[in-house]
């Protein structure tokens, strides 16, 4: 695939949630409808629910154990950032990263990795 630059504003976003996955009923399978849950972006005031976030969008959702951890910082997030344009060319509208960190930590982590505009971060 071409490595051409595509404007990726809002393509990669990052969010925070403190609700463990097992409370959602286990593993979410490909093509399944996500449970509706409130996520936070940028700060504790900026909320979005999963129903609105994913409505009508072909998305990739991934979670990481924690911002600034070695595996997540060296492998997980950079892997998605490096492939962002390829995912866009395959027709994906957004990459969404969910962490258990607070929105402020997750935002700082996204800035450090230049993920803004490439990966959506939710908390």
TrEMBL record:
What InterPro entries has UniProt attached to this entry? Answer: PRX5-like (IPR037944), Redoxin (IPR013740), Thioredoxin-like_sf (IPR036249), Thioredoxin_domain (IPR013766)
| Recorded GO MF terms | thioredoxin peroxidase activity
Source superkingdom: Eukaryota
Record domain Thioredoxin: where = 28-123
Entry protein name: Peroxiredoxin-5, mitochondrial
What GO CC terms are in its UniProt record? Answer: mitochondrion; peroxisome
Q: What residues sit in the active site? A: 72
BP GO terms, sorted: cell redox homeostasis; cellular response to oxidative stress; hydrogen peroxide catabolic process
What is stated as this protein's family in its record? Belongs to the peroxiredoxin family. Prx5 subfamily.
Q: Which UniProt keywords apply?
A: Antioxidant, Oxidoreductase, Peroxidase
Secretion signal: which residues?
none
Q: What does this protein do?
A: Thiol-specific peroxidase that catalyzes the reduction of hydrogen peroxide and organic hydroperoxides to water and alcohols, respectively. Plays a role in cell protection against oxidative stress by detoxifying peroxides and as sensor of hydrogen peroxide-mediated signaling events.
